[in-house]
Amino acid sequence: MDRLADHEAFLRAIFAAPADDTPRLVYADFLDEAGDPDRAEFVRAQCELDRLAAGDDADRRAALEGRAAVLLERLGAEPGREYRRGFGVKSELVVAPTQLADPDAFRALVVARHPEWFGETVLRVEPDRALFPEEVPTLFALPVTQQVTEWNLGGQVEEIPAGPLTADGGTFGLIDLRERPVINTAGVEVLAQCRGARRVRTLVLTHNRLDNDAARALAHSPYLINLTRLDLYDGNRFRGRVWQELIARFGEAVVG
């Protein structure tokens, strides 16, 4: 197992048992061996802080808090970000398609800057461009997405000012809407055939300009067997009876 995979295995164990300090302290020992003593000490200090009851050993608490602050600065932590027991608290798991061009670089970024993502069950793909179909299996295969059950692959809708200002000079008289898709029909067809789609419980595909072929791929997928919500009505281009196919497969309460 390579060193990056070792980190990922420890992080999976940590967030599989979030209330248990033992995996965190074992990881701290690994960090020492891996040449990252500051991060190791930070994990240990915050775990001890968490164990101290309010009012207990005020001097020890103050010493630990001061040392943790010094270590955070050394580690280049984001200002104002909250940490508990060695890891950032609640951070949205976001992937940009361009990051999938080098999956190992993205894995390394997650381990170094966002290890708490191993505890997140919601993923959002940021539309810097649409996913290439061959990147969809890569997204499902990332170690950090293995626990994700809610997949937000919805495109974004931006308001673009158009036309002259109104008479009072306050706002533009016209607004254009521009959609920025995250995935195209070919990508949805690949998604529908990914074994990892078994993990998906919520799938958002709005505002991607998808057509009937995408809807049929979803309806005939052998792996989308655990869906409780499929959100794709807005911003797509379905015609004819394809909507009935989706309802027949997933149920009216799921499809929207």
Structure description:
This protein has helices spanning 3-16, 22-33, 37-51, 58-74, 103-113, 135-141, 185-191, 212-219, 242-250; strands at residues 83-84, 87-88, 93-95, 122-125, 150-152, 156-165, 172-180, 202-204, 229-231. The chain is α/β, with parallel strands linked by helices and 256 residues long. It folds into two domains: 1-86, no CATH class; 90-256, Leucine-rich repeat, LRR (right-handed beta-alpha superhelix) (Alpha-Beta Horseshoe), CATH 3.80.10.10. The strands form three sheets. It has a five-stranded parallel sheet with strand order 3-4-5-8-9, with no helix packed on it. It has a two-stranded antiparallel ribbon with strand order 1-2. β4, α6 and β5 (150-152) form a beta-alpha-beta unit. α1 (3-16) runs antiparallel to α2 and α3 (37-51) packs antiparallel against α4 (58-74). The longest helix has 17 residues, at 58-74. The protein starts with a helix and ends in a 6-residue tail after the last helix. The model has no long low-confidence stretch (mean pLDDT 92).
Structural features:
256 residues, alpha/beta, 2 domains, two-stranded antiparallel sheet, 9 helices, 9 strands, elongated
